[in-house]
Specification:
By secondary structure, the protein is mostly helical. It contains two helices and no strands. Pfam families: IMD. This is IMD domain-containing protein.
């Protein structure tokens, strides 16, 4: 009988889903903090403004990854 195998698969899938959700929450919090730093640098004067622009671009790329991760749950 394959019932224990299916139950094991369902159990592991549930754990994977919970881990993915936790990872997405952690990534979201990280990107929020990253965006705050990028915004602060962008609003600064001098070369720091250029660094802020670069950080914003990086953050946008990471947000695209976050969106892709959300499609897995």
């Amino acid at each position: 009988n394959g019932t224990p195998l299916w139950e094991d698969l369902i159990s592991k899938a549930t754990k994977l889903h919970a881990c993915l959700r936790a990872a997405i929450l952690a990534v979201s919090a990280y990107l929020e903090a990253f965006q705050k730093i990028a915004d602060a640098a962008t609003n600064a004067r001098g070369a720091t403004k250029e660094i802020g622009t670069a950080l914003t671009r990086i953050c946008l790329r990471h947000k695209a990854v976050e969106t892709r991760m959300k499609s897995f749950t």
